[in-house]
Structures are given as C-alpha cells and as structure tokens.
Amino acid sequence: MDMADLLRRAEKYVNAEEEMAARKQKTPWSGHQEEKREHSRNAPERKEKRKERSELTKEDVRHKLSIREGSSRGGGPIPSYNNFAPLLDTRTRILAMEQDKVPFQWPEKLRSPTENRNVEKYCRYHRDHGHDTEECRQLKNQIEDLIRKGHLRKYVDRDAPQGRREQRRKEAPRQQEEQ
Questions:
Q1: Which of 75, 81, 130, 159 could form a disulfide with 70 if both were Cys (CB 3.0 to 4.6 A apart)?
Q2: How does pLDDT run across 84-106, given as a tens digit for each residue?
Q3: How far apart are CA 142 and CA 74, in angstroms?
C-alpha cells in the first residue's frame, strides 16, 4: 500500500461522510433528529434529574414509591371529616399495625420550612419532624376514610358514647400496659 492508495481511501471516507450529511439535510425528519437528541438519555436536563435522584436517601425513595403506589390505586385526595369514629387504639399503633396490610395513601413531604418545625415531635405518617403522629390531621382523616371504606372497622369502639370517644382512645394504651 502506497501513499496514493491511502489518499484514495481517505477521499472515499470523506465522500461517504459528506453524502450522509447531505442525506440528513434532505430528509423531512432532520428536525426530528434534533428533537430526539433533546429527549435522549444524555440530554442535560436528564443528567441533572439523575444526579438529583442519586442524592435521595432510601427513606425519600420509599416515600416517593409509596406515593406512586397510592396514586396507582386511584387514590385521590383524602377527604376531610368532621366526625370521627371512636377508636379502640391510638392512631400511632393502628398505623404501625396496619401499614402493610391496608392501602394507606402516604402523604407528600411536609411543606413548612425545616427550621420552623419542632424537632422533638415526630410523625410516623409523614416520616418527618414537626408534629406528633397522634396530632396528625391527615392521618386522622386517612384512618377515618379507611374505616368508612371497611378496612379498619375492627378498631372502631362501638360501645363508646360519642362524647367519650377521645377519652376512651387515650385510655386504651394504659389498659394494655396494665395487663
């Protein structure tokens, strides 16, 4: 192979590349190629999103997955109730016992700034600091909704008069501790 052969070969490569470039310009899909590039795995926006995802903690990932699972079950917003069934146990214990058995719809992260939250209080439903699980209005509504849908009826105190329901529920843990 001499220098002339090398030049011919190089010229063929250049011609082939120019022909390919010309074909791309003539096709009506050339704009589509750019669009494809924007949505490719290596697009800057996608790289940024992957970076953010890798910075999530395991708890955040579990939280996001549980939200996705909840929404896939057709879980829209949980209604707010004014009247609540009297309970035989605390909401905290009901959540702990039933979270894997009943279709709980997990809430989004708390919106209030972290520095304004009470770090001495922790909500197991939100998996975040700021308020106690027993004080959580969303959990209260979630449990009531699940009771009305028939999932948690075994926790309803059918003997309690309406006025004493909160008092009975608070007494429930003491009764169990005494036994």
A1: 75
A2: 999 999 999 999 999 999 988 98
A3: 14
Angle (CA) 134 140 144, round 5°: 140
**Vertex 16: Cα angle to 13 and 18 (nearest 5):** 110
Q: Which of 176, 177, 179 is nearest to 88 (CA)?
A: 176
* DSSP conformation letters of 72-128: HTT--PPPP-SS---BSS-HHHHHHHHTTTS---PPPPP-S-GGGS-TT-EETTTTE
Closest CA to 176 of 90, 98, 96: 90
State the pLDDT at residue 178: 45
> What is the dihedral sign for C-alpha 84, 86, 92, 97?
negative
**Contact in structure between 134 and 92 (CB atoms under 8 Å):** yes
Q: Which residues pair with 123 in a beta bridge?
A: 128
Q: What is the pLDDT of residues 126-139, one digit of tens each?
A: 999 999 999 999 99
Closest C-alpha to 92, from 175, 170, 11, 14: 170
Q: What percent of the chain has pLDDT over 70?
A: 61
Sequence spans of domains, the chain: 50-178
Please state whether the predicted TM-score (pTM) of the whole model is above 0.90.
Answer: no
DSSP 25-60: HHSTTHHHHHHHHHTSTTSHHHHHHHHHHHTS-HHH
